[in-house]
Amino acid sequence: MKMSKLGYFSEFLLFPPLVLLATLLAFCSSNPPQPAIWVLVYGIGLFGWTFIEYLLHRVLFHHAPVFSQIHERHHRSPLDLIGTPAWVSVLLGVITVAIPSWAAFGFGLATAATAGLVTGYLWYVFVHYATHYWRLRKNSYLYRARLRHARHHHLSNGGNFGVTTGVWDHVFGTALEGRTSKA
Ligand SMILES: [Zn+2]
Ligand SMILES: [Zn+2]
To answer: Which of 81, 97, 136, 146 could be stapled to 8 by a disulfide with Cβ–Cβ 3.0 to 4.6 Å?
Structure first.
């Protein structure tokens, strides 16, 4: 849905304190996680996000009912702020990530997996915003992300589904090469 700037970025206000609070609770509990393992699981969650981002964009946003209609609006009007209300993403995050990882790893490491995925997700929201709105220094990471994502918009659903990284497009053969100046 189309949102105000505050609405669009409210996830940045809501997610970090929630994740931080859960992490503090985990480390202050009677059975705290081992810091090194926590960091490792956090890293796996962060990297795992890039794959989820690729899949969500390639499959859900371009082919699933409702999601594809919303995403189509973004393709038609890239400068409209179209996003998910923060309470919906928090609810989805709790149901699809926090609770299953709690069941799988226990509370301590579930906070690590969730924190990694949430960091990746917020990084994705930020990078996607920057690729459409910011003037970027040539050859910077964000500039390359902008070029990659511009090709995706230009050729619609032809490829370049990764926003934060092009690695999965290379793995699955959907990387678009070539030049375009259209964002
Ligand atoms: Zn876009
Ligand atoms: Zn798309």
So the answer is: 81
Residue 181 in any domain: the answer is no
**Assigned domain for 183 exists:** no
Within a domain: 180: no
Low-confidence ranges of the chain (pLDDT < 70): 1-2, 156-157, 178-183
Helix/strand/coil percent split, the chain, to 5: 70, 0, 25
Distance 44 CA to ligand 1 centre (A): 26
Q: What is the pTM of this model?
A: 0.89
CA of 14 to the centre of ligand 1 (A): 23
Please give the structure tokens belonging to residue 84: 């998910």
For the chain, how many structural domains are there in total? 1
Residue 182 in any domain: the answer is no
* Residue 60 DSSP code: I
